[in-house]
Write a structure and sequence with these properties.
Elements lengths: L14 E3 L17 E2 L3 E2 L7 E2 L3 E3 L8 H10 L2 E4 L5 H14 L16 H11 L3 E5 L8 E6 L19 E2 L6 E2 L4 H11 L3 E5 L5 E6 H9 L14 E4 L4 H11 L3 E4 L7 H14 L4 E7 L2 H10 L4 E4 L9 H5 L5 H19 L1 E2 L2 E4 L5 H9 L4 E4 L1 H4 L9 E3 L2 E7 L28 E5 L4 H18 L5 H7 L2 E3 L2 H7 L9 H5 L2
Parallel strand pairs: 5-6, 5-19, 6-13, 10-11, 13-14, 14-15, 15-16, 16-18, 18-19
Antiparallel strand pairs: 1-23, 2-4, 3-17, 7-8, 8-9, 11-12, 20-21, 21-22
This protein binds ligand MZP.
Length: 504
């Protein structure tokens, strides 16, 4: 006979946190939101630590290049969607990795004999205003000089003239040589008040460039998540069908973290794919997966599939109809608490800590905070990021308000993808597990995250915590009745913004 669990399937909105002693040092500015993302042994550290405990979902309407750059600059990461061709996904990862670095390989270069018109084409194509001039026009050719958009006037100068007549020649260019530290390179930029510093190899060939704007960017984004080569960290969703081709392409493009994207990850498919990936890339990559909603599923993915982190959540996503369609899933709070308990048991037994990601169904900032308090190491969100300027969808105006389309990876809109290929090779989707809709536009990633993280830091102080680990340790939660939820809202006043609620 089927087993019936004793517990009710509970959601985050059914809980509140009880404050603990706030000491004087518990100030938001003293709070760290650092979160591990890769399994680690007791006493050691995670191979990679997120600077904020937030990542974006591997979805077509959420995580493209712009999201990858924006989130990594804030200290998190975007899982670039895998429901696209391998080439397109790898190109997105490559762009994120190329976005910024201390030492950037130049991807716009010209020969000294190129015309200004050809130079302009390069500038317009790449958006770069500083272009190194090399003997053969390659990124590693003999360095001859540098030309910027300030060295000529597009509408005054003869565009058939050659670059060499306008460039600053090598003798006059302040440059560094390979081996220079980033700090020293930035100091040179400062000392000579330059925008870019070419770095040359001993034989005079161009190696890379260091930009002042990258330095400024770094100062403005102190939490940005960088790899050891000072490039933004990039993450990607993968599937259990084409991983043997997709993963090598993503690794080649520079991906740092991958995660299996599946509504039900408790499967031999995920184990097989994960072991294949670990065998080849365990030293290069952090490999996560899921999703699961039970202790049993978690153990399987940790012990059998050897994953670095495990995602929890089935059917809670804002666009998800898996529970209605297939009858599988679990309230996100119940699922998370059971998996966290199992994770802690596993840590006590084996001395290995497995980070847990709470994925989907986070409807507001409070729920993100409750998920963290319940023991999630980080959260994954789709809708939250679909609403930002950086999601890869166009803005649309509906009845005078600005929206963006947002659709599930299991919706008809995403149906032509290989994750839905049946055994006969047909790409027909049998039934939908996700819906297609619109979400309001709320601003840029850094604007919305700033508010969410400020609230998180404040709540952590209320619970006498300076780190997320302390926060979970100190958390005391209470179940709330429907009446107390009502009590928690405003009462007996007419809200100033109530007119906005009427017509949404
Ligand atoms: P949310 O943040 O929009 O509530 O949920 C995002 C999560 O929903 C994703 O990370 C993924 O786990 C899940 N998802 C994506 N597509 C579907 C679907 O079409 C889905 N059913 O459930």
């Amino acid at each position: 006979m089927a087993k019936i669990l004793d517990d009710l399937s509970r959601t985050f909105s059914e809980y509140l946190l009880i404050p603990r002693l706030t000491r004087k040092e518990h100030l938001p500015r003293n709070v760290s939101l650092a979160a591990p993302i890769a399994r680690f042994k007791a006493g050691e550290a995670s191979r990679l630590t997120l600077n904020i405990p937030v990542v974006s979902a591997s979805m077509q309407a959420v995580s493209g290049t712009d999201m990858g750059v924006a989130l990594a600059r804030q200290g998190g990461m975007a899982f670039v969607f895998c429901s696209q061709t391998i080439e397109a996904q790898a190109a997105m990862i490559a762009k994120i990795k190329a976005h910024k670095a201390g030492f950037v390989r130049s991807d716009s270069n010209v020969k000294p004999t190129a015309t200004l018109r050809e130079l302009l084409d390069v500038m317009k194509k790449t958006g770069h205003s500083t272009v190194p001039v090399t003997e053969d026009g390659s990124s590693n050719g003999r360095f001859m000089g540098i030309i910027t958009d300030k060295d000529f006037w597009e509408f005054e100068d003869d565009l058939s003239s050659q670059v060499k007549g306008y460039m600053t020649p090598k003798e006059k260019v302040i440059h560094g040589t390979v081996g220079i530290t980033l700090k020293e390179a930035n100091h040179q930029l400062y000392k000579h008040k330059k925008e870019a510093l070419p770095i040359l190899e001993a034989d005079g060939r161009l190696n890379s460039l260091v930009f002042k704007k990258d330095y400024v960017d770094h100062i403005n984004n102190p939490l940005e998540l960088l790899d050891p080569r000072k490039r933004l960290v990039a993450a990607a969703g993968i599937n259990t069908h084409d991983y043997k081709e997709r993963l090598p392409a993503l690794v080649e493009a520079g991906v740092d973290v991958v995660s299996f994207d599946s509504s039900d990850g408790f499967s031999e498919f995920q184990k097989e794919a994960s072991l294949w990936a670990r065998e080849r890339y365990a030293d290069k990559l952090i490999i996560g997966g899921g999703n699961v909603v039970s202790a049993e599923g978690f153990r399987y993915l940790v012990e059998e599939a050897q994953l670095d982190f495990v995602k929890v959540g089935i059917g809670g996503g804002s666009i998800c109809i898996t529970r209605e369609q297939k009858g599988i899933g679990r309230g996100q709070a119940s699922a998370l608490m059971e998996v966290v308990e199992e994770r802690n048991r596993y840590f006590r037994e084996k001395g290995v800590y497995i980070p847990i990601c709470s994925d989907g169904g986070l409807a507001n900032d409070t729920q993100i905070i409750i998920a963290m308090a319940m023991g999630a190491d980080f959260v994954m969100m789709g809708r939250y990021f679909a609403m930002t300027n950086e999601s890869p969808t166009p803005k649309v105006s509906i009845k005078g308000r600005i929206y963006k389309p947002y659709w599930g990876e299991g919706s008809n809109r995403a149906r032509n993808w290989e994750r839905y290929v049946d055994e006969k090779g047909s790409s027909r989707l049998h039934f939908e597990e996700g819906v297609d809709g619109y979400v309001p536009v709320v601003g840029s990633v850094n604007e919305v995250l700033a508010m969410t993280l400020e609230k998180m830091r404040a709540t952590m102080c209320n619970l006498g915590s300076k780190t997320l680990a302390e926060f979970t340790q100190n958390a005391v939660l209470t179940l709330v009745s429907e009446q107390s939820i009502e009590e928690g809202g405003t009462s007996n006043i007419i809200k100033v913004d109530s007119k906005f609620d009427d017509d949404t």
